[in-house]
Amino acid sequence: MSEKQTYVGADLGWRLAMFGYTAPARERMVRLVLECGNVEADAEIIFDSQFPSRVARGVVLGIADVDGSVSIDPDDAVLPFGMHRDLRESRLMRVTVPLLRARRYAETTQPIVAEWPRGHRFWVSGWIVGQAVEGNAIWWLTGQGKATDRRWRVWSGGTDLTFKDILDLPVIEKEGAA
Predict the structure, then answer these.
(1) Other C-beta atoms within 10 Å of 170: how many?
(2) Domain interval for residue 87
């Protein structure tokens, strides 16, 4: 498809790239080049030994979830890394552990951007699957769903909802979902 057909970069000045290694296939099959991070900005994440398997699982489940109908089994120990859900309505959460750290991304190796004591309240607009801490891989996305939100990641295990409660929260339905 062309840039005009996909509207890629219409207002942002981006361009679709022509990848020479996929060009011979363009007449007989659909091509997909998936960028999974920026080697400089995301190097610590990309070079983690678990990264290839997490990306593979996420891609497979993402394709299966194209219509938003894939359900999540809370008993499944391995959720797809990077799976993200926006809540239908933002929620105010409370820190229940002595100290909870907010990070830029949902991994404990990421820089700490804020530290909140027990009782601190903060808004969340969704959740994402990140690094599992104490068996729980669900992290909150902070904010109220506005463009100005910082969208920090905060491990949900230090807040007042259980893992299953989080998965049961109403989320924004994707267009075309059943």
Answers:
(1) 9
(2) 74-167
Classify residue 35: in a domain, yes or no: no
Distance CA 118, CA 158 (A): 9
Those residues whose C-beta lies under 8 Å from the C-beta of residue 164, and which sit 6 or more positions away, are: 74
Asked if residue 4 is part of any domain, the answer here is no
CA distance 165 to 46: 31
Q: CATH code at 143?
A: 2.30.30
In a domain, 147, yes or no: yes
SS3 per-residue string spanning 141-166: EECCCCCCCCCCEEEHHHECCCHHHH
The structure's pTM equals: 0.61
User: For residues 83-106, b (16+ Cβ closer than 10 Å) or e, as one string?
Assistant: bebebeebbebebeeeebbbbebb
Please list the rounded mean pLDDT of every run of 10 residues in the chain (178 residues): 57 58 64 71 78 78 64 59 88 96 92 96 93 89 90 94 87 59
CB 58 within 8 A of CB 81: yes
